[in-house]
Amino acid sequence: MAWVLIVNPFASGVDERRIAAVKTALPDGTEVLFTHRAGEATELARDADGSAGAIVVFAGDGTYNEVLNGVSGHTPLGFVPGGGTSVLPRVLGLPRDPAAAAARIAAGRERRIGLGRANGRRFGFNAGVGLDAELVRAVDRMGRRADGKRPGDTAFARAALGLVTRRRGRFEPALQIGGLGRAAFVMVANCSPYTYSGSYAIDVAPDASFEAGLDLVAPVRASAASLPGLVWAVASGHAAGRDDVLTAHDCDSTVVRCDAPMPLQVDGEDIGDVDAVVFEAERDAVTVLV
Length: 290
Description:
Layout: E1 4-7, H1 16-25, E2 31-34, H2 40-48, E3 55-59, H3 61-68, E4 77-81, H4 87-91, H5 98-106, E5 110-118, E6 121-123, E7 126-129, H6 131-141, H7 153-166, E8 175-177, E9 181-183, E10 186-189, E11 195-197, E12 200-202, E13 214-219, H8 227-235, E14 245-251, E15 253-266, E16 269-289
Parallel strand pairs: 1-2, 1-3, 3-4
Antiparallel strand pairs: 5-6, 5-16, 7-10, 7-15, 8-9, 8-15, 10-13, 11-12, 13-14, 15-16
């Protein structure tokens, strides 16, 4: 069966030259399909699932997430880095260069991985309620550049600084995590690292694994004085054991209930405000090419 290559032409690392190089590295006869709107990658993946030899995605994290939500788990998937961060292929150990990653994918070495779900929506690497979702929303509000591409890490850093400044460094308990307790916000990891900032790995839950359940890291509260140390501990994977952070490892499911509606993000995509979220581990969910 012929392979399918789904391309988001608006992803920050995608251009005509790289598309040609990626297609050349994939098997002969690979069909190229372009996305033009949000949600279209899910539809394209659903149509190709079961009839394509493999579905390869040349895009960023948002498009990877759409494809994960359009497949049954039987058709092999390949993720070529085309976004500003492209967490999923990086965690899977693929090269940063798109053509080199495509060549590795074309070699056909398979791996089964688990996924997470947030209120039924799949995610590949992380999800969050509260702070990190607020940051995703703030960056989205900045809009896209003239070429249609999203802002990069610098914009994310500006958004983070602005959010902390508006709150004067204070984060109070605002949600309840089943089996753990109250916290200001919660980050849910399906793998390690949680994400990247440039070349720096933000390893929030260092024990998280595609082969295990979900890991949770949830700061209870923070003040202007405690925030710098808390941020370092969380970002470097040293949050476990702290009195001001709740953690859990290899969870099959948990429910988060918010005091008031809070933003939810999955794989860096704003899903909207929620009153409650059911997080579930979907073990052994899909086959990926690495």
